[in-house]
User: Fold this.
Amino acid sequence: MEEANGHPDKKSIIIVAMTANMLLNFSGPADVFINADRYLESCDILDGYDVKVVAPTSDKKLDTAARMSINCELCVADIQNPIDTLIIAGNDSREASQPGLTEFYVWLATRNEHNTRRIASICGGAFVLAKAGILNGRKATTHWQSSERLSKTYPNIEVNANPFFTRDGHVYTSAGVSSGIDLALALVEQDYNKDIAVSVARKLVFYLSRPGFQSQFGSLLPVYEREHIGQRTQNWIAGHLNEKMDVNQIAEQMNMSTRNFTRVFHRETGMPPAKFVEKLRVEAARKCLEDSDMPLERIAESCGLGGLVSMRRIFLRHLNTTPSDYRRAFRTSLRDFGIESLIAP
Assistant:
């Protein structure tokens, strides 16, 4: 059995690649710690990081969506020594995979504050920590698409979908995919100092502290089936965003009384009609910001968000960012290459 720490003077970083469907879940944090170790060695600091990406199962094999196989040198059963930082990257939630993960969960149950200084998860890895009981009573973050499911499945976890990562004691959880890089850089800064973390971030052409919040990446409304009251309501409202509207008008379009419409709509969508309309207006404004150079004033007017001040306040409430900052972050990149013909009007 190979030792978990081949370099006893260095901090052992064990990254468990639960699934290879998103390579960045484990390759991103691995690159951060590997480059941090190289930079530390160049500064004659020899107690850096010993990084190992390991498989959760004994076959040590990871199948990827890119039609290539990754063979790890180690699986978790080979790791028996104390660990500095254990990172659970992603989550293989397929039913067929669960029986093969029994030994992994037995191993994970042995990991605690006495033999593992920090335990972390990337993206869906939060579900793995939750299943193991490690997140019981703790604050946690996961991918914005999975936050509601994590909260409903494990109600004793305080789920926050906004930040790129969350710390609760010795347990760290990060949001979706690339946010594992954000978390890894923060851990490097915690271990050493800001200057070293900045140097690694520059090497990777990445922010040390990324602006904004994860919420700005997610859709404010789910996708409804065609006959769902949310979808039927959305279809009508989409053509009247620049108009003032109240619940009476919407109920009339749905051929329902105001009282019955409000009751049914809230039951089926989980929100009152007014909040739904506001989210639709924000989604329409996001699309304009991403795809056009339309002035902010016109966007606010055409989407029914009032003026600039009102639109800014609503964006901050729903997306934790301003319209101007959102446009800078998400406007189409094709314009920078002069590829106008591929941009839908």
In short: The chain has a mean pLDDT of 89.
